[in-house]
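Exam revision sheet. Question 4 asks you to relate a sequence to its structure. Input first:
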Amino acid sequence: MAATQEIRVEDADRSEKKRVLVVDDDHDFALAVSLYLKQEGLDVVTAGDGVSAVEAAETMSPDAIVLDIRLPQLDGLAFCNFLRRGIADRETPVIVVSGHSSADWKSDMLDAGANAYMTKPCNFSRLHSLVMRHMGASD
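Answer key, structure tokens:
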């Protein structure tokens, strides 16, 4: 007699959720973004530094990444460059959310392959809309 496998509803729902990696060394900001995006139905993982972000991006294959620029160990610019050149899924949308508002920072990040750039403090609803748009999903 073959064993039956029980499928829990929460597991089925989880597999269909879009996954977002939030990378920010400001724990409070990462938590606030994470809670908002989870409330909007997304599956969220956070990383507090660039090295952890690389590991998370490689293992979880996120559908989008919300990225700060100033990070310990590997900054956002280096992470974005590495993502676009070194990780198998080079098409993952990257939305930069940073306290740097200068045109040079924005230009550098977009040149490195970021898809969008927002400054802090950011509007979480607008961030969610950007994430959804760049993942090709509707709000």
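Marking note for examiners. The CA atoms of residues 95 and 130 lie 8 Å apart.
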